[in-house]
Structure formats: structure tokens, C-alpha cells
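quick one before i forget lol
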Amino acid sequence: MIKNKQELKIESDFAKSAKIVLHNGDTAEFVKTIPDNSVKLIITSPPYNVGKSYEKKQDIHKYLEWHKPIIKELVRILHPEGSICWQVGNYVDKGEIFPLDIFYYEIFKQHGLKLRNRIVWHFGHGLHARKRFSGRYETLLWFTKSDNYTFNLDPIRVPSKYPNKKYFKGDKKGEISGNPLGKNPSDFWEAIYQEWEKEIWEIPNVKSNHPEKTIHPCQFPVELVERCVLALTDNDDWIYDPYAGVGSALIAGIKNDRKVIGSEKEKEYVDISKKRIVSLMNGELKLRPMGKPIYDPKRTAKENSQAQLRSYANNQ
């Protein structure tokens, strides 16, 4: 639950006393106002340079050069025990694929960051290609600034396939063999198969029938951010999304009692973010619950309902 809602004012400029900062303007300039070593988690999905309405497509080398000074500033503001989660897809030029995570990896390594996981997020719906296989995944690079970093596994454990499995021999014979809170969700998050079959997190992308859908064409699912927030930060830590879009990262942070910062150049998206944040604080924002099973048309309505109830029970 969100604590002290009446105290949560949305500030437009960074201040140490603030709880929510949402800046409408250029990220490259705004990030310079954030103190050194202050942000525990930087999580974002930067512009992919694919020619969306809010970005101007440019040569991939110019695109990466444009990001380098911003990344340098992000490393500066990152807490010594902090993490950067950088989610990207592919740059496409005349039908040729350039996997952005490979290019970004080298940039972050130049600043001494250490890659802890390369998480693959697969989803079942998206644009249909005609001259290649349709893209159905993105990658999230999780870097840390040091070897001493925040990582909370218990809040993001997922149900085990056999929760009552017991040791059949040895000193622990008859005792439960797995962690009663569930298992580690692994580094492959998927939106189709059963979680226990492929070690996956079921997180659908935000499309037309998703309860969180806004006008943004590449919207972050709050559930995706929320798991990173719970695992990589503690209560009252700062979280920053330098390309905040419609505020999904901020919402995930506020929902879990973190302090949040976002910067976004498109005023239309900032206005939507503010409305979503206010709706969240009023208990009116529609969100997909973390861990809710994907709807399976092959199951009966009763089976889908039972699956959702089991998921709810496991997350209480």
C-alpha cells in the first residue's frame, strides 16, 4: 500500500526532499541536476531509433554516440550498490537486424559496470514481418556498479512446480526440499508457456486489450518494472527512468514505497503520467496484478479463474 498519500506531491525538478519527480524536458540536461551516487535503480527502455512518431531515425552509430554522454551521467548518479536495467529491442535498417543490447553492452563496460543478467522477455503479440521472422522478444541488460549490490530474491519468487516435494533420503528425508516461498524466476521471462516448464515469468506486452494501455506505442508493463523494483531496491530508495514515457516505472516505484524520478521530453506523455499517478494514489488506476497468469483460451472460464486465484494466493 502507498503510505501517506497526502504527502505525495509531483515535483517538476529534482529536490532531495521530493518523493515524486517528473520532469518535462531534455534528459541530457535534467540528469545533471541529480546528485552523485544517489539513485539505487535506473530502469528504462530508451528510444530504439526505429522511426516512431516521437523519435527521428538516424544512423545507428550516431544514435549510439548520442546516448554515450547520457549513459556517463547515469553512471555518475548511480548508487555504489545500485543497478541499471536497460531494456532494448533491435535496430532495423533495410531489413537487416542490429541487436542493440550487443552495442550497449560495450558502452556500459567502458564505465566499469558489471553485467549480472541478460534477461530475455518474450511476448506473443507484436508487428508482423514479411521478409523475416516476426520479432517477439526484447532484452533487458542488468548491470551493477560494484560487486556489493542490492538483490532481494524472496519478494519476486515464483511458484514451484512441485511445492510439496520432499527429500526421499538422507538427514532431511521427509522434509520439503524446495524453498517454501517459491523458486528463482531465472533470466527468461515469457508470456505463453507454463512458468515451471521453461523457468519463465509470464508478462504480456501492453497491447490494445491490456488494462494499462495508453496512447504510447511502446509502453512498459508495470509488472515488468515492479519485479526489478522489488529485487533491486529497498523501501525509500530512489528509482529513475530517464525516458519515462507514460510513467510505468514511476508507478511501479510509488506502488512499492520507493521515491521516483522520471524525465520525458514529450509533454503529452508527461500529462498522461501525471493522470496515471493521481489515479494510482486514489486507488483508481487499472493495473495487471504481478504474477497473474496469462489468459489461456484453451482453458475453461472456471480453470482460468482458479489459476488466477492460485496466483493471488501465492503473492499474498
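fyi The domain at 5-153+185-314 is CATH 3.40.50.150 (Rossmann fold).
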